[in-house]
Each structure stands twice: as C-alpha cells, then as structure tokens.
Design goal:
By secondary structure, this protein is an alpha/beta fold. It is built from 14 helices and 10 strands. Helix content is 48%, strand content 17%.
Amino acid sequence: MIAKLLPARFCRKDIGAKSGISSLNASRKRRKLNHCVRPVTITQVLVSIVIPAFNEEKYLPGTLRAALKACAVFDQAGWASEIVVCDNNSSDQTASVAKANGVQVVFESFNQIAASRNAAGRAARGDWLVFVDADTQVTPMLFREMMRAMTREDCLGGGCPVTFDSGPWLARQTVIIWNTIGRVMRWAAGSFLFCRASAFRELGGFSQDWFAAEEVEYCIRLNRLGQRLGKRMMILNEPVISSGRKVRALFTLKNLGHGLEAIVTFGETLKQRDNCRYWYDSLR
C-alpha cells in the first residue's frame, strides 16, 4: 500500500538497484585507487666492486674489510653485490689474501693498471662497476650516496673527492686541486670510479696505451658517451680515503719531474712505463 503511494523512484526495487549501482561504482573506484597506489617493485641491481691489485698484501686486507662492510647497504636496499680482485702478476701473497676474504680473484699477467682494471671489469657480472684502488677504503655513507646517484636515469657514472690517511700535511693539501678539477671536469680519480657496466663494454674499458692517468682518459670518453646518451658523470660529496703512500712517493723530485713532463706533453710521457715507475715498483 505504501509502495503505491510513494513515487516510483522510491520503490524498494529501484532503491535496491541504485544501491547496487552505487556499490559497483564504489568498488570500481576502490580498485582504481588501489591500482594507483600499488607499491613499485624495483628490479634487483647487482653492483660489482672491482679492485686491481699488484703486490698489495699489506693494504688489501683493510680495503676488503671496508668494502665488505660498506656493501651491507646494498643488502639493506635489496640489491646484490660482489667483489672482484685482479691479481696483476703479483710476487707477494695478494691473491691468497683476496681468496681468504672470500672474494672472486682473476689473474692478469700484463703488469699494467689499465689491463688489471679491464680484466676484473670483464669478469664482473654487475649492472654497475665500482673501481676501487687496493689501498683505498670506502664507507657505507659513500655507498649510500652512490646508490642514490645510480637510481637516477641520467647518471652514467661518477666519482668522489679523495682524502689521504697520512703523509706530509702540505703535500696532502694538494689533493684539493685535483678534487676541484675533477668536480669541474667531471673526472673521477682512479681511487674511486663507478659507471654503468654497459658503458664500460661500449667503450672497451680503459685504454691500455696508458701506464698512468688511464682513469682521466677513460672519464673523457665517458663524458663524450654521456653527451650522446643524454646522461652525465656525477661527482659525489662523500670522500674516499686513500693511502698516504701516494703522497710520500709522488712528492719526490724525480716523480715531480715526471709530473711536469706529463703536463708539458699533454700526458704522452705517461704512455711509457719508465716514466711511471712508482705504480709498478714491486717494493711499494
């Protein structure tokens, strides 16, 4: 009786129909909203720490301890990592030290740092390669900053400032000049240089024409590649800590003379092993 008195739009059937339509629309909206806020799953990234080593049994243990500790930040982010050491025809226990620390070891008979970097880089399986000198210690803070750079689409690679753990105070301050030049030119020091593995392969790695400063020549080519790809080299803010032996050895009259020759010849003298003896002295 009441149904007859009420307008048709208020009939129970219509009310039920409208209620069903409203529920369906609400359900669709919820599904759409849930689709919009669905968590994004990041594909696991593999980062390879690449360490060239020639007669580094003294410094390599500290370098590996620091690298293994820093790699924990990758685990926390759900990334994977590996460490590859290249024994560059060492006459000491470099290879044994590396194996004792559970890292992968490859061998390169040609005693040259560029060849050593390339051998380890080719053996690495990572999406990113991080080249670290065997007398250099990285930190978790540095790796966190590096990870943020790696997640950027426009990042091709990069480096960071260098500090020395010892050596004459005045000589250690000269690294400020390098750090400034590196930031302006987007050059990474050999102590710490990272890049996409695809870029390493496309460029054919480091030029083996050079017995020193091979990282500068490599960074020049990386920057050119970045211009073509719409990507860039990024110099981080966190520093890496390298051995003060570089300062003590390089700041001798003989090595300073080689440095001046390299500047005058635009680096051509660095293509001769005799002018780079510090890097290949077995008694370093």
